[in-house]
Design a protein that fits this description.
Blueprint (H helix, E strand, L loop, with lengths): L13 H10 L11 H16 L4 H26 L9 H12 L6 H17 L3 H5 L5 H27 L2
């Protein structure tokens, strides 16, 4: 957890450290390759745990992750002086959880479809997804595009599941 000015992790406050744990999704965002994909994969075990709960609790957990993620993303953005630090992956976690929640009572293959569709929309940032990333403050913008990508992916995955009758 290095700051751009060379100050070490010991210079971070306890709240900053907490923000880094949440924002990097327990270190997934520190992956040197494809941190967004690694962060999305880091959400999969949580999805399978949440899918055992009633839908309202599943959605409540996504809302909680979104609120904490927005706070953490803003704090990390401020600490590093970067608009959208690549190591922040809690946005991918929230987005992929939305996509996979839309097909939670379907087959595991539909969960995979939700995951893949989410990554597609997150990477391509089509239309309103790109517009959402410009929301301010920075923490909201970091989270917003992935939330919208999750909704798009979830809708398409749900439509696919309905078309297949699963």
């Amino acid at each position: 957890m290095q700051r751009p000015n060379g100050a070490g992790a010991r210079d971070l406050s306890p709240l900053d450290r907490t923000a880094f744990v949440i924002g990097t999704w327990f270190g997934c965002g520190e992956s040197p390759k494809a941190p967004g994909t690694v962060g999305s994969l880091g959400a999969v075990p949580l999805h399978f745990l949440l899918s055992r709960l009633p839908l309202a609790q599943h959605c409540g957990a996504i809302v909680l992750i979104t609120v904490l993620g927005t706070w953490a993303a803003q704090r990390i953005s401020d600490a590093l002086g970067q608009k959208d630090p690549q190591r922040v992956v809690v946005d991918e976690v929230a987005g992929v959880l939305i996509a996979m929640a839309c097909v939670r009572n379907s087959t595991p293959w539909m969960a995979v479809a939700g995951f893949v569709l989410f990554r597609f929309f997150d990477i391509t940032k089509i239309g309103p997804i790109r517009a959402a990333e410009h929301a301010r403050p920075a923490g909201l913008g970091i989270m917003a595009d992935d939330l919208v990508a999750g909704v798009f992916a979830g809708i398409l995955a749900r439509l696919g599941a309905m078309a297949l009758g699963v």
